[in-house]
Amino acid sequence: MAKSTAKSPQKPAYRCAECGWTALKWVGRCTECQAWGTVTEIGAPKLGAVAAGPVSAPARPIAEVDVEAARAAPSGMEELDRVLGGGLVPGAVLLMAGEPGIGKSTLLLEVAALCGRDAPALYVTGEESAAQVRLRAERVGALAPRLYLAAETELSALLGHVDDVKPQLLVVDSVQTITTAEADGAAGGVTQVREVAGALIRLAKERGITVVLVGHVTKEGSIAGPRTLEHLVDVVLQFEGDRHSRLRMVRAVKNRYGPTDEIGCFDLSDTGIVGLPDPSGLFLTRREEPVPGTCVTVTLEGQRPLVAEVQALAAASNLGQPRRATSGLDSARAAMVIAVLERRGGLFLGKHDVFTATVGGVRLTEPSVDLALMAALISAYADRPVPVRMVACGEVGLAGEIRQVTGVQRRLAEAARLGFTDALVPKGLGRAVPGIRAVELDNVAELRSLLAPSGRDGGS
């Protein structure tokens, strides 16, 4: 009988420490996450070496599982609870990431203080001394009788504090500063972060403690550390904001207990951070008389409509290549709107410097902002202001058509609540919104005819 020459499939011998990708041969760069120097050798898996062992709890029919232990408890900050889907869940592990100095520590210190009024809460800092955190807590009014504070950088010491305090909420600021002797590498390294996070996740699940980990971000804006960290935790929160603005936003990138399309708005000042249930006023300029080059739009951040103002300025340029600058808007989308306005609307901006921006430091990337941006550009070029009580919502296509966007009724209802009376919208609005007179547009040419009738261009 002929001997079989079929070979058994080769087992992966190398694994990326960043994302877990495996390969048969070593490579310098992971083809999955594009990280350099993270592919290391792993031991050959031993099939059949694991035997059945004792279970932690017997399996039960799903209808008999008690759900009360997983009920979210309000944190005391309504804006944060909105993002989390109700509040803090016992046994959940949250990862909050954001740029340095954005206000992560201030927000979590106030959350811990609110929890510390009724139940034990432990705030562990690895970046500051206990006295520094105490001074900030006094400044923002975050002193609570059952809020405990510790400055530690060793995991074993942190676990010792947990045994002594027995908190319901544990805040670790930050996970990159905590080390353990059981893992190799320096603090903040891939191995250290993975081991520390794994130990804290086990602690949360075993004892029913809500754990909040503060995470650093890289210069690209992504969360520092191994990618598996984001997969292991239950909730990933992104803390955003402009350093030159008081507005701060928290959005859920991942949430096992609630929605991922909600945002929380906060006002950061010297006296602390407070929630903003109605932040639209921060994104508008208060003026009595209309000014050319401005238009108000209504954007949807998750399920929340936000009224914001878009500004544009077109000035004659002496440069061979006129400047194009944006602030708070997607530069690629702004360039597209300008190109469509020139080609389909007959507004020639090739010899003009064009500057576009938003008010209040808010960042608008939704396609529904296209119509407001185009209206602001036409207004700036023609030196004819858009009416003060008018908003614009719609997407602009490359063929010059104005397309429908989601949630138009909800957007216009928010505009009516704030006192706006007119709206520029795509055709096909359907049901009218009380208090709003809608002007339906089909293409860019109609928009220009409405805002800058022929022969009235101040910039031509």
TrEMBL record:
Keywords: ATP-binding, DNA damage, DNA repair, DNA-binding, Hydrolase, Metal-binding, Nucleotide-binding, Stress response, Zinc, Zinc-finger. Pfam families: AAA_25, Lon_C, Zn_ribbon_LapB. One of its GO terms (cellular component) is cytosol. GO terms for molecular function: ATP binding; ATP-dependent DNA damage sensor activity; ATP-dependent peptidase activity; damaged DNA binding; serine-type endopeptidase activity; zinc ion binding. The keyword Acetylation does not apply. A motif (RadA KNRFG motif) lies at residues 254-258. Residues 353-460 are annotated as: Lon-protease-like. One of its GO terms (biological process) is recombinational repair. SUPFAM superfamilies: P-loop containing nucleoside triphosphate hydrolases, Ribosomal protein S5 domain 2-like. It comes from the Bacteria. Residues 69-217 form the RecA family profile domain. The keyword Zinc applies. ATP binds at G98, E99, P100, G101, I102, G103, K104, S105. Belongs to the RecA family. RadA subfamily. The middle region has homology to RecA with ATPase motifs including the RadA KNRFG motif, while the C-terminus is homologous to Lon protease. DNA-dependent ATPase involved in processing of recombination intermediates, plays a role in repairing DNA breaks. Stimulates the branch migration of RecA-mediated strand transfer reactions, allowing the 3' invading strand to extend heteroduplex DNA faster. Binds ssDNA in the presence of ADP but not other nucleotides, has ATPase activity that is stimulated by ssDNA and various branched DNA structures, but inhibited by SSB. Does not have RecA's homology-searching function. This is DNA repair protein RadA. The gene is radA.
